[in-house]
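[step 3/7] fold_predict: job queued, chain A
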Amino acid sequence: MKIKSLLLLTISLIILTSCKSDKSNEDELIAKAKSIHDRVITLDTHCDINVKNFTDSLNYTQDLDTQITLPKMKEGGLDVAWFIVYTGQDSLNESGYKKAYENAMSKFKAIHKLVKDIAPNDIELALTSRDVRRIIKNGKKVAMIGVENGYPIGTDLSNVGLFYEYGARYMSLSHNGHSQLSDSNTGERDSIWLHNGLSDLGKQVVSEMNRVGMMIDVSHPSKQAMKQMIELSKAPIIASHSSARALCDHSRNLDDEQLQWMKKNGGVVQTVAFTSYLNTEKNDARSKALKDLEKTVLDSLGSKWMSMKEISSLPKGDQRDKYIETYIKMKGIVKEKAKTMEGLPPAVDVTDFVNHIDYLVEKMGIDHVGISSDFDGGGGIEGWSDASETFNVTLELVKRGYTEEEIAQLWSGNLLRVLDEVEAVAKTMQTES
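[step 4/7] structure written:
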């Protein structure tokens, strides 16, 4: 009995020591990750906005029910947010272009209002990588501007320069639907294409973007359009929010051939934290399990459940805006209820996200990969559901063995390097002309 008791005691001590050791190692890992997170510049290339949240009474100084706000950026240690001037695709005529232009200008003005009038002591607009570093050194958060869909420029090439003057430092030439400039990835659904890549005007826009110093974003255009942009561009390009198609077969992701084009071009792919672009199977299983709850909550809020396709088909204006507002509220309620539900399929999370980063780094090299969220535009995953959880991405990168230098590249170094190179090309072109 004494031998048996001694053996049990020894085993217990080994287990206890092992648990303490594991806890100590975990604490050291977290401390290391926090130290790195504080030192590197964290930059997210895609955060959508709603102009209603840029008023004197309702704005990003408050902890709004949105994924990106100043309090959330401060809590999560997110230094740079690219706010997006997004316009959905509509009719290819002067009336459509006029409305799109007005929408784009309202978003430019909202961002400028935030940095100039609402919170000038907390956040500042950056136009260059030098601005980014200066602003952060001064203890402020950084705003940058990207344009999602070139549709608002209409047929007026001078609008490229105008948008640049308003602070736009990247632009995609299409979104969900073919624009007057470029085919969209959505053409894969029916194999119907408008331009077989870029239109003649789209090709001129590529050249003009090079000339003014605006990065070309290929996250939404078709594969053929992307190929033509790379062939035409004198500067590196970016994919502002896309992941690896080999891991998740979605037309918004880039296949291995496209990744090699990006590498050769010297560009960067900003891996996106969007559930259905990271792991379709996990996303679909969990969505199916939560669908009944979503219907119940929406019903209690006075609305009926709709698919994303049905939401997109709603008439633009107050009706669609009101439904989307209710839908976002429902998602928040469901998210909280899901925390206590048993037997739910696992959510797409930070590990799935960093799996894509790993794959992209393996295929293209560390110099060509970055990070984006698509917050308030459908993005957000378990562990990085809003800007307040930004640290969790760094923690997972540290767990995977990435060095501080590599993490700095992924978070901002690669993207800012491309921005610098695009600026240099523009200066050369302007001098030669």
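[step 5/7] annotate
The chain has two domains: 39-279+348-432, 280-346.
The CA atoms of residues 32 and 113 lie 37 Å apart.
exit 0
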